[in-house]
């Protein structure tokens, strides 16, 4: 019986220690309805905002698909060729705007509505 209580006590101490370590990284206090002040660990955002990166890539591919559908394959290729003969920044833009399979697929879907 005493061994079980000692194990429960050890587990409780371990939980308290983990809670204190998480509070050492930053915390936010709040007040309960009965006036008790509670400190909760401050949640930090992830360093790599994956949702933002995905949204930017999605927007870029949709923009490329729309341009490809609007201009057509030959005019789009001509504009990329003229960018490819420009400055370094224009060459990077031409590389990024090169039509990939996703761009062509999206442009085919958009052409049905244009």
Walk me through what this model shows.
It is a single chain. With 114 residues, the chain is mainly α. It has two domains: 40 residues, no CATH class; 62 residues. Helix content is 68%, strand content 9%. The protein contains five helices and two strands, in the order αββαααα. A two-stranded antiparallel ribbon has the order 1-2. A hairpin with a 5-residue loop joins strand 1 and strand 2. The radius of gyration is 28 Å and the shape is rod-shaped.
List the helices and strands and how they pair.
Elements: H1 2-24, E1 27-31, E2 37-41, H2 50-71, H3 73-84, H4 88-96, H5 101-111
Antiparallel strand pairs: 1-2
Rg measurement, Å: 28 Å
Strand content: 5-15%
Number of domains: 2
What is the tally of helical segments? Answer: 5
Order of helices and strands: HEEHHHH
Main pleated sheet: 2 strands, antiparallel
Gap between N and C termini: 78 Å
Query: How many beta strands in the DSSP annotation?
Result: 2
Q: Which strands sit side by side, in order, in the main sheet?
A: 1-2
Regions with little confidence, pLDDT below 50 for 5+ residues: none
- The secondary-structure class comes to mainly alpha
Average pLDDT figure? 89
Helical content (DSSP H or I, runs of 4+): 55-70%
